[in-house]
Amino acid sequence: MRALRYWSTYIAVLPFLVPTASYAWNMPIGVTDVSGDIYRLHMTIFWICVAIGLLVFGAMFYSLFRYRHAKGAKAAHFHENTLVEVLWTAIPVLILVAMAVPATATLKQMYDPSDADLDVMITGQQWRWRYEYMGENVAFTSSLSTPRVQISGEEKRGETYLLDVDNPLVLPVNRKVRFLMTSDDVIHSWWVPELAVKQDAVPGFINENWVRINEPGIYRGQCAELCGMDHGFMPVVVHAIEEKAFDEWIAERKAAAEKEISGIDRDWKLAELMERGQATYEAICVSCHQPGGKGSPPAFPALAGNEQLIADQAWHLDRVINGVSGAAMPAFRDTLNPVEIAAVVTYTRNAWGNDTGDVVQPSVVAEQVDQ
Amino acid sequence: MAKLPPKSMPLHSTPAAADGQLNTHTALPKGVMRWVLTTNHKEIGTLYLLFSLSMFFVGGVFALVVRAELFQPGLQLIDPEFFNQMTTMHGLIMVFAAVMPAFTGLANWMIPLQIGAPDMALPRLNNFSFWLLPVAFTLLLSTLLMPGGGPNFGWTFYAPLSTTYAPASTTFFILAIHIAGISSILGAINIIATILNMRAPGMRLMDMPLFVWTWLITAFLLIAVMPVLAGVITMMLMDINFGTNFFNAAGGGDPVLFQHLFWFFGHPEVYIMILPAFGIVSAIIPTFARKPLFGYTSMVYATAAIALLSFLVWAHHMFLVGLPLVAELFFMYSTMLIAVPTGVKVFNWVTTLFRGSISFEPPMLFALAFVVLFTIGGFSGIMLAIAPADFQYHDTYFVVAHFHYVLVPGAIFAIMAGAYYWLPKWTGHYPNERLAQWHFWLSVIGVNLTFFPMHFAGLAGMPRRIPDYALQFADFNMVSSIGAFFFGTSQLLFVIVVVICVRGGKKAPAKAWEGAEDLEWSVPSPAPLHTFERPPKFERSTS
Question: Which keywords does the record carry (chain A) (predicted)?
C-alpha cells in the first residue's frame, strides 16, 4: 500500500519535474590526466558518430520524403556499383584508423608500468572494500554508512545517499599511487568515475591500475561488477588530500594500529567489547546477517536465538576466524584484528536475547589466529 | 552480368494446393496431439512463434518488475535478492526463449517457402527441437519457486558467483540451458540440411533470398558456439556438484577462464540474434521501395565477414578483467573492424531507398525504425569498442542502453517487421493497418523513452544491475520506468492485431505486397499445409 501511495504521488507531480542543472549528463572530465584524456577521446568518437549519423540518416530521410510512392515516385532499377562499394568500405576503415590512433596512445599511458610512490592493496569482499597501505602496516575495511532507514524510506535521503562509507580511502594528490586489486570471494570491480579507474577485483588474481590525482577532493564511486545481493550497496569513497596532510594522516593511523595491537593482552570488560562489537557488526556482518541478527535463510543463517551458536562458543569463534568453506561466510582472520573479532563474537553472544554472558578476550582470539 | 536478388516466376511454380494434390491420404491427429506430433514446418513454425511471443511477455513482466523497483531511489517493492533473480531471468528468457525461438520460428515457416522446398529436411527432428523448449523453460522458470530462489547472478552467470556462491537451484538452471542448447543445435543442423539440399532446381546459393543466407550463416554460428556454452555450463556443474575447481581460485582454478569461454560463445551469440534480422530487413526494404536491393552480393559477404569476425572479438567484454596491453589492443582493433561490414549493410539499405518508390506499410515502418535505431546502437557499440573509454563505460547503464538498442529496436523490431510482412501469407488476411500503425508508433516512442535516458545515466556513473541508486540518477530512471511500462503495455496491441488477423480481415492474394519478389509469394495466401510438393522451376531474372 505504501508503494502505491509513492507511485500515485510521483505520477501526479511528474509533469512538474524538470532535470536540475546539477545533474550530470555526461562522463566526468575527472581529476587525473588519464581521466581528461579518456573524456576527450569519448567526445571525439561521439562527435564522429554524430557526423556519420547526420549523413546516413539525412540521406535516408531525404529518400523517404522525396521518393514516396504516394506522391507518384517511379522506382529506378540501378543496383551494384563497384566504385561506391569500395568507397563505403575504405572510408570507414580510414575513420576507424583515425579513432584507433588516439585510443592506442591513451591505452598505453594507462598501462604505464613505472614505479609508484605508494602501493595500495584493494580487496573486494561481499560487500565492502578492504584497503591496505603496503609497507605502512595500515589497513582497514570500508563499508556503506548510509543508514538503512534511508534505504527503506523511513528517513529523508541525504545528498550522498548510497555513496557514503565509514572509512574512506585516503590518498595523496600529485603522487603516483598503484592499486593492486584482488577479491576474497566473487568478482568485484572498483570504480571511481572522477579518477577513471575501474578494474575488476578477481579472486586468485592481482590486477594493477594506477592514479595520480591532480586536485584534492572527495571522489565517489561504486562496485561495478555484479557481486551478489548487496552489489548496489558497496560504494567507494576516496579522500584526496595534500601530500603533507597525507603523511601526517598515515603516521597517525600507524600509531593507532600499533596501540591497538598492544592492547590485546589486557583484560577487556564486557561493556567495552559490546560497544566495539556493535560497531563491527554494523559495519561488517549486518549486510548478510541483517539488523537484529535475523539473518536471511537459507544462505545467511539467523544469529539471534541460534541454538548452536549459543551452546558452543568455540564453534562460534572458529566460524568467524576461519569462515565456512563452500558457503558465503568468509574467514575474518586477516580482515579483522583480534580485538575486533573478540568484540564482535562477544557482541553476538550477548545481543538480541542471546544473553550468554560470555566475554571473549582478545588475547584468546590472538592465540587462535596465530595457530 | 550483374546479379539481381532472386525473382520467382509464379507461372512456373507449382504449389501442390493449386494442383489439387493436398496430402489427404494421412489422417491428421485431432486436438492437442495434432500439435504435439506435427512434423509440418508451418505448424512447427507457428508453435515456435507462439512460444516465443508468450515468453516475450514473461520476460517483459520480469523487466517491468525491475523497472518498477527502479522507478525511484530506495527499496520499495522487492528485496535486492529477488531483484537479482529478476534481472537474470529477464535476460535469460529474452535471449534464449524469446528472440532465438522467434527467429527459428520464422526460419521454419519461411525457409522452405523461400527456397521452394516441401518441408524441412528433418521433420521429426524439427518436432523434437521445438518440444525441448517448453521443457527447458518450464524447468528454468520453476527455479524461481525453489528454496533459495532462482538464478541471481546475471544472464552472463560469471563464476564464482554462479558456482561457489550460487543458490541451490543452479543445477536446474544448468540443465535447462543444456536442453535449450540441444534444441538450438538440432534446429541449426536442420536448417543447414534444408538449405544445402532442398533448394528448388536452378536456385544457386547466390540466388537465395537474404533471409535464407543470413540464417545459413547463423546456423553455422550456432553449431560452432552452442557446444562451447554446453562445455562451460558442464564445468560449472562439475564445480558445484563433483568437487572440481575449474573456476574456483581457492582450488587453483581460474575465474577468468569462465569469461573467456562464456564470451567465446556469447559474442557470436549476439550475432545469432541479429543476422536473421538483417535478412528480414533486406527482404522488406526492397519490397516497399519497389526497387532491388542495392548490393545483394556485398550483403552476403558482409554477413559472412561479421560472422567470422565474431569469433575474434570476445574479450572486448573483458577489457577490465586484467588483460595485458597487447590483448587489449588486439580486441579493440578487431572489434572496431566489425563496424565496416555493418556499415556496408546500413549503406546498402539506405541506397536501396534512394530513388525508390516508397510506401509505408507496417512491415516497412518497423524495418525503417530498425535501420535508424539499430545504427544508434551501432554507434554506441563503436564507442564501447574504444578500450580506454570502456574503462569508464564498462558495466554501466551505457552498456545496458547499447545492447537494448541493438536487441529491442534491433532484433525485436525486425521480428515484428517479419511478422507483419508474412502475416498475410500465414493467415490469408492483412493485419489491421490502423492498429498496426498504433502499435508501431507506441513502440517507437516507448522504446526510446525507455532506453535513451540510460545512455545519460550510464555516462553519469550509474552501474548496471543495482536495485537502488544514488539520487543524481533519479530522473533518468523515472523516465526509463515510465517508458518501459508504456512499451510493455503497447505490445498487447500486437497480440490483438495477430488475433484479429487470424480470425479475419482484408483478404490477401498470393502476392500480398506489390513489390515482393521471393518464392513464398507464389503460393496461395494462406499458404496451404503442404506446398511445393513438386519442386517449382526457379528462374533467375536477368538485367
Answer: Copper, Electron transport, Heme, Iron, Membrane, Metal-binding, Respiratory chain, Translocase, Transmembrane, Transmembrane helix, Transport
